[in-house]
Amino acid sequence: MIHFLKRAIVVGGGIGGLSAAIALDQMGVEVTVYEQAGEVGEVGAGLILWPNAIKALRKLGLGKEVVKSGAKIFRGEICTPAGKILSGWDSGDLEFRFGAPVIAIHRADMHKILLSALPPGAIRMGMVCTGFQQDDEGVTAHFANGQSERADLLIGADGIHSPLRRQLFPEVALRYSGYIAWRGVVAAADENLRGISREYWGRGKRFGIVPLGNRRIYWYATANLPSGQTSSAAQRKETLLRHFSRWHSPLKSVAVKTVIAATPAEAILYNDIYDFPPLSQWRRGRVVLLGDAAHATTPNMGQGACMAVESSLTLARCLADGKDLRSSLRQYESERMPRTAWITRRSHRLGRLGQLENPIACLLRNLLVWLTPDQVMKKSIEKAVGYEV
Ligand SMILES: Cc1cc2nc3c(=O)[nH]c(=O)nc-3n(C[C@H](O)[C@H](O)[C@H](O)COP(=O)(O)OP(=O)(O)OC[C@H]3O[C@@H](n4cnc5c(N)ncnc54)[C@H](O)[C@@H]3O)c2cc1C
Predict the structure, then answer these.
(1) Ligand 1 center from residue 70 Cα (angstroms)
(2) How confident is the model at residue 52 (pLDDT cuts 50, 70, 90)?
(3) pTM for the whole thing?
(4) What CATH number does domain 178-274 carry, 3.40.50.1820, 3.30.9.30, 3.40.50.150, 3.40.50.720?
């Protein structure tokens, strides 16, 4: 029991919001998640969860299920579009060192696991939060259907475009990375990949293939393009095939072209990639931000969702240990800000490197990656993934 926190509202039923609700519920706080989507659907494509996230999920009691539902990644490689391996690292070493594996999981499976850990009725779908008001006694969240809900704490886990962050800090501007991303999942003989996740680096574009288990493959692609492209699903698939059709084919069943061609156009997800420079504040009064709403990062290190789970645990612990709401939220900020800022900045720089377009710059980059000893590459990954909440 937390004496200054009886009831909390979470806006946003993504990985961050659900993890935060689970952590608070486990501490005896009455918590409700309000999600704008009408129903829990087949969300997203694949997700890579590094040892830092698996260990955090274990603390929520969900580690085993996540590992069981996903596929272990044994090795990661960076290759040229022609298939030459520039760099590689054994994820088995990471598991040995940090005590948790690297897992690729379908987002829908991840959501199911998180949802099943919440008490019945703890999530209300179709609730679009339009804003909040707060006073000394509590905070009231308002919803588009006219309803209002009151609580001691409001957690804004409403994603990178967070309406709650806009109300708290209207001056925060998103930063467009200069590239877009496509993602998909396709049924294919994932055992052909033998647990290896590969990212191909071309000129101004990248392609990733990740085994997802149960004969499914998660793929993603990026390309330097202006934001706000307006094209149909079919046109987008055509663009993708045009960009990547000549890329390396390790095996026919998992060739770049084959996995794109086998994915229905409407099932291909498309995002302009944004982040924002690290913020100096995530809270005001009884309202606090979490996950992408607080620390959105480009996906280059595969750490956005991992950090959202970490932040959820830290927030819950700070609330449990704190003497009042104000000092707990301050503690949460001071524990989480340095790490999330480091990852956001590093991921941004990594994206710039990966998306280089000039042929000479690309040649030099590839040479640098090829010459860098695997041990050095491993060290830089370890700092991100060896963290324990
Ligand atoms: C291409 C790509 C690949 C990625 N790959 C990885 C990866 O491999 N590993 C990894 O760790 N991370 C990855 N990420 C990052 C990861 O997806 C995010 O960091 C993570 O989903 C953030 O979770 P969240 O809960 O904070 O936000 P979200 O997942 O965005 O959830 C926010 C929720 O809030 C809801 N919402 C928004 N506004 C309102 C409102 N007004 N009222 C009610 N509800 C609202 C939304 O509907 C949504 O459900 C990737 C991201 C991208 C774009």
Answers:
(1) 19
(2) very high
(3) 0.96
(4) 3.30.9.30
> Rounded to a whole number, what is the distance in angstroms from the first to the last CA of the chain?
21
Question: Is the shortest distance between the CB of 103 and ligand 1 below 6 Å?
Answer: no
167 lines ligand 1 (CB under 6 A): no
Predicted pLDDT at 30? 98
pLDDT 10s digits, 258-307: 889 999 999 999 999 999 999 999 999 999 999 999 999 999 999 999 99
Domains of the chain, residue spans: 7-174+275-385, 178-274
Q: At what angle do helices 51-59 and 374-385 cross, to 10 degrees?
A: 20
Place of tokens 């390396």: 248
The per-residue pLDDT for 375 is: 79
Domain 7-174+275-385: CATH class, spelled out: alpha beta
Q: Is the CB of 35 under 6 A from ligand 1?
A: yes
The token pair that represents 284 in the structure block: 């005001």
Give one DSSP letter per residue of 118-135, joined into a string. SPTT-EESS--EEEEEE-
Are 285 and 139 within 8 A, CB to CB?
yes
Ligand 1 pocket check for 12: Cβ under 6 Å: yes
> Is the minimum distance from the CB of 94 to ligand 1 under 6 angstroms?
no
* pLDDT per residue as tens digits for the range 121-160: 999 999 999 999 999 999 999 999 999 999 999 999 999 9
Measure 251 CA to ligand 1 centroid, in angstroms: 32
